[in-house]
Amino acid sequence: MPADLAIRIMQRAGVADREYDRYATVDGPVTRLFVAYGRGAVTGSAPVEWYAGPDAFEEAHLHRTGRSALPTAKPLPGVVGALRTGRDRTLRYDYGGLPEAQRRVLEAVRAIPRGQLRPVGWLGREAGLPEATAAEVLAAVRASPAPVLIPVHRVGDETGRPVDCGLPPDLVGRLRAHEGVDEDRLTRFSADGTRYLGSDTTRIFCYPTCAHARRITDRHRVPFGSVDAARVAGYRPCRSCRPVVV
């Protein structure tokens, strides 16, 4: 069956575009994805390997959104580039019936740069929910309608280790490796209690995966186990990764 046949049938029947979604199969960084969209926004995505076939994805999408998803050969503009670069800031998302607090958490997840990790506490703060518990923040992360596209694999605990973000651990590992996250390095930092890295030349401290932290040479790297320890030593927080409010 031609990919857009069902859509052409709906159009000839006079059914408005707003009554259904479209979906395309797109190559992701480490796996192919079904990506559904409608009214100019992503309405869902998931690894192809999670489903027995397109029909199963369509059924799951209908159950979650209440709208049919019809196959198309044309993905939403911007999706292919977002998957290639790991930056999706040009995309819009339709979060459906998710509460506002959960939407804000997912928007904070989108702000985590490619190849970097942020702890759960950072997400709550960036989402403007400083009183939210770790369980509440993680529940919002796992409720993402578009995992992989929304980079929930970039969420970790305070040491950078993976948390239950709603993706299988092996997929999280593959996504992180693809983005250049050095898990062995993070494990070493975790073992010796390092939570932040400072530079004795700039007197700034960052999260270990911050782009600025990765540029600090061994000679100038200063490890810290807490924000207080860094501040007592005269270091100020990075304005890029924002380990504290700056």
UniProtKB/TrEMBL annotation:
<dbReference type="InterPro" id="IPR036217">
    <property type="entry name" value="MethylDNA_cys_MeTrfase_DNAb"/>
</dbReference>
<feature type="domain" description="Methylated-DNA-[protein]-cysteine S-methyltransferase DNA binding">
    <location>
        <begin position="101"/>
        <end position="174"/>
    </location>
</feature>
<dbReference type="Pfam" id="PF02805">
    <property type="entry name" value="Ada_Zn_binding"/>
</dbReference>
<dbReference type="Pfam" id="PF01035">
    <property type="entry name" value="DNA_binding_1"/>
</dbReference>
<feature type="domain" description="Ada DNA repair metal-binding">
    <location>
        <begin position="190"/>
        <end position="243"/>
    </location>
</feature>
<dbReference type="InterPro" id="IPR036388">
    <property type="entry name" value="WH-like_DNA-bd_sf"/>
</dbReference>
<protein>
    <submittedName>
        <fullName>MGMT family protein</fullName>
    </submittedName>
</protein>
<dbReference type="InterPro" id="IPR014048">
    <property type="entry name" value="MethylDNA_cys_MeTrfase_DNA-bd"/>
</dbReference>
<dbReference type="InterPro" id="IPR004026">
    <property type="entry name" value="Ada_DNA_repair_Zn-bd"/>
</dbReference>
<keyword id="KW-0227">DNA damage</keyword>
<keyword id="KW-0010">Activator</keyword>
<dbReference type="InterPro" id="IPR035451">
    <property type="entry name" value="Ada-like_dom_sf"/>
</dbReference>
